[in-house]
Amino acid sequence: MIRKAGVHDLDSIMAILKVLGTSEKNPTQGFMMNDYTVNEDLHRQKYERDLKTLTYTYVYEEDAVVKGFLIAYRKDEWLKEVPSWEEDIFWHPGFNRQNLKDFVLINQTGMFPGLTGKGIGSSLYKALFHDLAQAGIFNIFAETIIAPTPNFASLHFRIKQKYSLAGVRYEEYNGTIFTTLVYHKRI
Questions:
Q1: Count of alpha carbons within 13 Å of 41, Cβ hemisphere only?
Q2: 109-137, pLDDT tens digit by residue?
Q3: Which member of 70, 89, 121, 156 lies 3.0 to 4.6 Å from 167 by CB, making a disulfide possible if both were Cys?
Q4: CATH code for 2-186?
Q5: For the CA atoms of the chain, what is the radius of gyration?
Q6: How far apart are CA 55 and CA 70, in angstroms?
Q7: CA distances from 72 to 26, 87, 126 (A)
Q8: Which CA distances in Å does 19 have to 31, 41, 71, 112, 154?
Q9: pTM, to two decimals
């Protein structure tokens, strides 16, 4: 079952984050850039705020256990978080910048290891797409890390979901430069 996420899901989401976001980055299972096993209180505060304020947060629940989640930001929410995001991207020459007028950026999709490829991510996206269509938002962006360790699970999902490459962005995090591909999809 897919449902909107709330603050009551914080412990479940943190459990998934602590499995996917460690110092070890597994390119085939998927991973998070942050290491959620350190500074947990700081991460909990951020996710609690997100679950209280963001419009597009979802969980996949089975047998009363949250097994996956999706967190997306509306354009205004994302640009508060990363004000220079649009300027930081090296846009693909064929990308139509008109798609930046109104969009949602999918910040994170995660599920417990062993559950990828079972339709959970697609189900979460389907719920998001339904809500976006009702809100009149048709442009979606998502980023996938390709260096220093490529996230093959995320790349495969972008291909499966028929995203188009829109640009490349570099981001410094804890002294490491991460290279991310910025993907776009119009629903």
A1: 0
A2: 999 988 777 889 999 999 999 999 999 99
A3: 89
A4: 3.40.630.30
A5: 16
A6: 11
A7: 23, 20, 13
A8: 8, 16, 17, 7, 16
A9: 0.92
Tokens for 137, please give them.
Answer: 């938002």
How many residues comprise the chain? Answer: 187
Residue with tokens 């705020």: 49
Q: Say if residues 41 and 88 touch (Cβ distance below 8 Å).
A: no
Rounded to 10 degrees, the C-alpha dihedral 111/116/119/122 comes to 60
Amino acid of residue 65 = V
Burial 146-174 (b: 16+ CB within 10 A, else e): beeebbebbbebbeebebeebbbbeeeee
Domain boundaries, the chain: 2-186
Locate 39 and state its tokens: 């500074």
pLDDT at 99: 93
